[in-house]
Amino acid sequence: AAGHCASWFGDGESALRCLTGPGRRAPSLVLLDLILPGMSGLDVLEALVRAGSLAHSRVLMMSSSVTDVARAAARAGGATAFLPKPVQLDHIRAWLPPVAA
After folding, report:
1. 42 contacts 69 by C-beta, under 8 angstroms
2. Are 41 and 34 a contacting pair, CB within 8 Å?
3. Alpha-carbon distance 53 to 45, whole Å?
4. How do strand 29-33 and strand 58-63 relate by DSSP bridges?
5. Cα angle 69, 62, 64; round to 5
6. What is the pLDDT of residues 2-22, one digit of tens each?
7. Whether 70 contacts 79, CB under 8 Å
8. FRET pair for 4, CA 20 to 30 Å: which of 26, 30, 64, 93?
9. Strand, helix or coil at 33?
10. Rounded CA separation 19/45 (Å)
11. 73 vs 46: CA distance, rounded Å
12. Which residues contact 23 (CB under 8 A, 6 or more apart)?
């Protein structure tokens, strides 16, 4: 969205390196898929929470596996919300912080 900067990672390990590395800037919003190559989105979320990298971040967990168990696990792990795929852009925009003019 206009005024926002985005980074994309193909797997959980890459995201962890960037979001927990030295000189990192805490994101205001994290879109995290439940199913990722290498490690699950829940594992990534747990590592980010443990590292203190999400103190001021909203985490939107998303998946095509929309079950009560998946939703509960995401919320218990610290996700702000769980969005079913395909995710509508308006649902993501609703969670973006306002941009200063």
Report:
1. no
2. yes
3. 10
4. parallel
5. 70
6. 667 788 899 999 988 888 877
7. no
8. 64
9. strand
10. 11
11. 11
12. none
Q: Which residues, in sequence order, are CB contacts of 20 under 8 Å at separation 6+?
A: 47, 48, 51, 53
Structure tokens, 9: 């990672």
Amino acid found at 31: L
Q: Does residue 99 surpass a pLDDT of 90?
A: no
CA proximity to 21, closest of 7, 35, 36, 31: 7
Q: Determine what percent of the chain falls in helix, strand and coil, rounding each to the nearest 5.
A: 35, 15, 50
User: Residues 83, 62: contact at Cβ < 8 Å?
Assistant: yes
Per-residue pLDDT band for 62 (boundaries 50, 70, 90) equals very high
Residue 27 neighbours by CB under 8 Å, 6+ apart: 7, 19, 57
Neighbouring CB atoms inside 10 A of 5's CB total: 7
Beta bridge partners of 32: 61
Mean pLDDT confidence for 57-69: 91
**45, two tokens:** 């979320």
